[in-house]
From TrEMBL:
GO terms for molecular function: metal ion binding; NAD-dependent protein lysine deacetylase activity. Residues 1-67 form the Deacetylase sirtuin-type domain. Keywords: Metal-binding, NAD, Zinc. Its EC number is 2.3.1.286. SUPFAM superfamilies: DHS-like NAD/FAD-binding domain. The keyword Cytoplasm does not apply. The lineage of its organism: Eukaryota, Metazoa, Chordata, Tunicata, Ascidiacea. It comes from Ciona intestinalis (Transparent sea squirt). This is protein acetyllysine N-acetyltransferase. It is an enzyme of class 2 (transferase).
Length: 91
């Protein structure tokens, strides 16, 4: 079992994954829950942080002096560079 379970941005509703923090706690480990909303396991957490996962992780990474690269949305092309000929000879 883990010494520490950190759950980030999860409602902890879907099993079996939702039970992993409880398994850690049962075996003497600590549980951290980082989530915007309440979860059914909040009372069992050793540390509970309310906030957006991105914001909290940005703060943690900053404290660890780890650069977080900026996210750029992917560009999707809705047209093609290929040309369709006006007529096609099938002979």
């Amino acid at each position: 079992a883990a010494d520490l379970a950190i759950t980030i941005g999860s409602s902890l509703q879907i099993v079996p994954a939702a039970n992993l923090p409880l398994l850690t706690k049962k075996n003497g480990g600590k549980v951290v829950i980082i989530n915007l909303q309440q979860t059914k396991h909040d009372k069992k957490a050793d540390l509970l942080i309310r906030g957006y996962a991105d914001d909290i992780m940005r703060i943690v990474m900053n404290k660890l002096n780890i650069l977080v690269p900026s996210y750029t949305k992917p560009v999707v092309r809705l047209c093609s560079d290929n040309k369709i000929p006006d007529s096609v000879n099938l002979d």
